[in-house]
Amino acid sequence: MAAARFDAVGLERSALQFDVLAETARRYLELVGWQARQPLLEAELAQRERMADAARKRFAIGAAPQTMALKADADVAATRAALSASRTGAVVAARRLALMWNERTGATIEAMPLPASLPPLPAFEEFRKALPGAPELTRFATERRIREARVRLAVAGGSADVDWELGVRHLAGTGDVALVAGARIPLGVSGRAAYEQSIARAERAALEVERESIEAQLDAALLEAWSQANAAAEQVQALESEVLPKLREAAASAERAYTAGALSYVEWSEVQGSVRSALEAALEAKLDWRRAMIEIQRLTAEPVIAVQ
Length: 308
Prior knowledge:
Helices cover about 75% and strands about 5% of the residues.
């Protein structure tokens, strides 16, 4: 039982280590997200400045009201503020990550960029095969050995210990010597032993029920994480292969139409805003995919597929 207790302590420590690794990965991914937003916002700011310059020129020649020029300048200011917030967010995320190794004076961390494309996601059953190795389940094997030992001890305690006594007694009246034997049997042992055995077996059965409950919860959590990863991968595929190419073409066409006087600034800005929204959605979907992979790794206690 002592060895099993040591095993349980080791498994609990292992589970805590996986939780710490998962939290470190999540904080690193937070930094990746903030740093990945900056190039998108820098490109958006450059485009908005071009649009504002075009709006001011059109106002200068009397081809558009001043409202449009002011709206364009406001859009530039809003984009510049978003870029500044993104840089601040990256600094905060780097410090949060550095706290994981007790670095409190601030740190400059350049995260690896997100991959251009996501690798194929294995089937759910492939991940499910690794679930029995999760620390939350392996600890039950150790605890089961402890409960089994308790049952064996309770069964062994059901056998009454009989004390025997054997001696010689001298009879003073006759001068004879007599052999004296005696036995001492404790009463009520079988009843107490049966009670202890029933308690030990009930604890063992309760442990099995608890294990099945935890396994069902882990299975559900794994399925949810896998579903999120699958949905994120499909969203990235749709945005990058279908939505963004059409929106970029629409934005180029809108700029030409605005230059020719066939489109207002509001209409051009709306198309440009759609491009930015789609780029941000694709980035967020990639981050969601990575978050789901982190959760799958935490649940299965095994490395997930590598991202090239």
